[in-house]
Amino acid sequence: MRILLAEDDFVTRKFMMNFLSSYGECDAAVDGMEAVDAYLMALEDGEPYDLACLDIMMPVMDGYQVLRSIRDLEADHGIPEEEQVKVIMTTALNDEENVKMAFDLGCSVYSGKPINKEKFDQALKKLGLI
């Protein structure tokens, strides 16, 4: 499995990289623009990501803007919905408004911080990734 992690906090990024690397190859981006660039490069190389974990509060572009950009790129490349990258929003913002916005933009799972490893595993199984 190919995984893209977009997380600006060093400690959280290190934790998530260690955790996610047991599932497959994991690339990290420190801001939203870097995440979109990495996603586009993978798409153009014919090796798209299977999972993207996006923080909402990031510099340059927030997680919502990244998600919107990813879904736009997939539409531009004619990628059918069932082949689109699975997106897990990872954030401390757990209010109803943020959750609804994330799902409206096309996220697959919304995971609050701190990350609960057991629930994260369950989410990956539900998405058919493990």
UniProtKB/TrEMBL annotation:
Pfam families according to UniProt: Response_reg (PF00072)
Taxonomic superkingdom: Bacteria
Cross-referenced PROSITE patterns: RESPONSE_REGULATORY
Cited InterPro entries: 2C_system_His_kinase, CheY-like_superfamily, Sig_transdc_resp-reg_receiver
Keywords of this entry: Phosphoprotein
Annotated Response regulatory domain residues: 2-128
Residues that span the membrane, as ranges: none
Residues bearing the modification 4-aspartylphosphate: 55
Free-text function comment from the UniProt entry: May play the central regulatory role in sporulation. It may be an element of the effector pathway responsible for the activation of sporulation genes in response to nutritional stress. Spo0A may act in concert with spo0H (a sigma factor) to control the expression of some genes that are critical to the sporulation process.
Name this polypeptide is given: Stage 0 sporulation protein A homolog
